[in-house]
Amino acid sequence: MASSTAAKSQITIRLCGPRGFCAGVDRAIQIVVLALKEFGAPVYVRHEIVHNRYVVEGLEAKGAIFVEELGEIPPEHRKQPVVFSAHGVPKSVPADADQRNLFYLDATCPLVSKVHKQAMRHHRLGRHVVLIGHAGHPEVIGTMGQLPEGSVSLIETVEDADLYVPPDPDNLGYVTQTTLSVDDTAGVIKRLHERFPNLTAPAADSICYATTNRQEAVKQAAPGCDLFLIVGAPNSSNSKRLVEVALRAGAKKSVLVQRASEIDWEAIGDISTVGLSAGASAPEVIVNEIIEAFRERYDATVELADTVEENENFLVNRELRHVELTAADMAFVNGE
Ligand code: SF4
């Protein structure tokens, strides 16, 4: 009788690097874990700290409570900290926290805060702000909420750019969401520049290094892939963009999955090369789970498809810097 290994067909998994957690996600998770150690449970978190169920459930198990609005925090817990998510919040949120006498820790990614500053700078210099991003995403709500109502216009697509009627076409400045498609955004900016030649760019690109690097790695690995799996949540903007990038760069099929259990093995069909990457909020432990799931069904060889090395690291809030993490905490924070 042939062994089950002999019966397995051979596939290559092209594992993209960089993939998974970025420095902003790592910092945000660290802030919740450190706050739990320093102040004890419960620690409240406004909105999913990062868009990943595995991370959220892991933090809930440690004593974090997720709320959508500050009013959900019961009066008897007002001395416990509340953490604002990595996506950033409108200015009204810390103001509301102050009014309610809440102690808050802001886990907004420093690169999102940088976009807030650039939007504020345009506004200070008298420019109407054009924000390129996706309506309803918490980062977009946070960025728009840095400025008075009516100071920011949201543009999502080239079609929006075509139809846009600004208050003063010669006095416009733009910023973008940090997790957009690099190529699509370049198209929107090009169209805006064609229509409004005096449009002012931000001092530095708003799309962050992690988004850019993950898209570039997927772009390079995609040609020749029969299937490209992206580990990420359906509400994770940067993960969804990776699926689009894989398809455009030549993968025959690309699917977003949160866990190995979501993979539809029946639908996969005949494959020889699978691309694999993970959005900036997806932990490495799930990437490994997926590789294992392939190894159970195929004779899989993992081929590293690395592009650049990332060394970014963002400091946590001052009040938490003295708190130490155990090796197990560090593994959780790193998504391992
Ligand atoms: S994806 Fe970029 S902007 Fe968002 S948390 Fe990560 S580093 Fe920060």
TrEMBL record:
GO molecular function, one term: 4 iron, 4 sulfur cluster binding
Source taxon at top rank: Bacteria
Record-annotated active site: 139
Residues annotated for isopentenyl diphosphate binding in this entry: 51, 87, 137, 236-238, 281
Source species: Sinorhizobium americanum
Enzyme nomenclature, EC number: 1.17.7.4
Function per UniProt: Catalyzes the conversion of 1-hydroxy-2-methyl-2-(E)-butenyl 4-diphosphate (HMBPP) into a mixture of isopentenyl diphosphate (IPP) and dimethylallyl diphosphate (DMAPP). Acts in the terminal step of the DOXP/MEP pathway for isoprenoid precursor biosynthesis.
Catalytic activity: isopentenyl diphosphate + 2 oxidized [2Fe-2S]-[ferredoxin] + H2O = (2E)-4-hydroxy-3-methylbut-2-enyl diphosphate + 2 reduced [2Fe-2S]-[ferredoxin] + 2 H(+); dimethylallyl diphosphate + 2 oxidized [2Fe-2S]-[ferredoxin] + H2O = (2E)-4-hydroxy-3-methylbut-2-enyl diphosphate + 2 reduced [2Fe-2S]-[ferredoxin] + 2 H(+)
Note on how the cofactor is bound: Binds 1 [4Fe-4S] cluster per subunit.
One GO biological process term: dimethylallyl diphosphate biosynthetic process
Cofactor list: [4Fe-4S] cluster
Pathway: Isoprenoid biosynthesis; isopentenyl diphosphate biosynthesis via DXP pathway; isopentenyl diphosphate from 1-deoxy-D-xylulose 5-phosphate: step 6/6; Isoprenoid biosynthesis; dimethylallyl diphosphate biosynthesis; dimethylallyl diphosphate from (2E)-4-hydroxy-3-methylbutenyl diphosphate: step 1/1
Protein name: 4-hydroxy-3-methylbut-2-enyl diphosphate reductase
Broad class of enzyme this protein falls into: oxidoreductase
A Pfam family the protein falls into: LYTB
Keywords tagged on the record: 4Fe-4S, Iron, Iron-sulfur, Isoprene biosynthesis, Metal-binding, Oxidoreductase
Keyword hit for Cell inner membrane: no
Cited InterPro entries: LytB/IspH (IPR003451)
Family designation: Belongs to the IspH family.
Binding site for [4Fe-4S] cluster: 22, 109, 208
Organism lineage: Bacteria, Pseudomonadati, Pseudomonadota, Alphaproteobacteria, Hyphomicrobiales
